[in-house]
Amino acid sequence: QVQLVESGGGLVQAGGSLRLSCAASRRTFSMSWFRQAPGKEREFVARITNTYVDTLYADVVKGRFTISRDNTKNTVYLQMNSLKPEDTAIYYCTCGVWSLNNDYWGQGTQVTVSS
Predict the structure, then answer these.
(1) Which tens digits make up the pLDDT trace of 5-58?
(2) For residues 35 and 45, is the Cβ–Cβ distance under 8 A?
(3) Considering only CA atoms, which of 14, 19, 15 is closest in space to residue 6?
(4) How many helices (H) and strands (E) does the chain have?
């Protein structure tokens, strides 16, 4: 069992920045961020493996968001810059203990971008 605790969400104006954090109760192979906007399906945002160099981004956030991790703290970060109103969503952290699967999910943190 892995517990994931997200933090860092909030309200920001368009063009602003936020940094989300997700602390895991143990080290995992991969950690990812997904998001779900009202009335929409949950969608992939970004992923990083414990090799650091292996990252993947959704096209809609590429160039604006950066995923990173600190293996000494079992924590993944999502730096979000140039935020747009369409980035408004609940952001979820997920992890794969030994693979790229999404084995466990956090409770989510709300990000609201005002125009």
Answers:
(1) 999 999 999 999 999 999 999 999 999 999 999 999 999 999 999 876 699 999
(2) yes
(3) 19
(4) 0, 11
CA max distance for the chain: 40
Structure tokens at 40: 């929409």
Instruction: Quote the CA–CA distance of 81 and 109 in Å, as a whole number.
Output: 17
Q: Long-range pairs for 50-55 at CB < 8 Å and ≥24 separation?
A: none
pLDDT at position 52 = 62
- Cβ of 97: how many Cβ atoms within 10 Å? 15
The CA-CA-CA angle for residues 7, 9, 14, to 5°, reads 155
Q: What is the 3-state secondary structure (H, E, C) of 48-64?
A: EECCCCCEEECCCCCCC
- How far is residue 62's CA from residue 76's CA, in Å, rounded to a whole number? 17
**What pLDDT band is residue 100 in, cutting at 50, 70 and 90?**
confident
Give the C-alpha distances (Å, rounded to integers) separating 72 from 23, 24, 25, 89: 11, 11, 12, 29
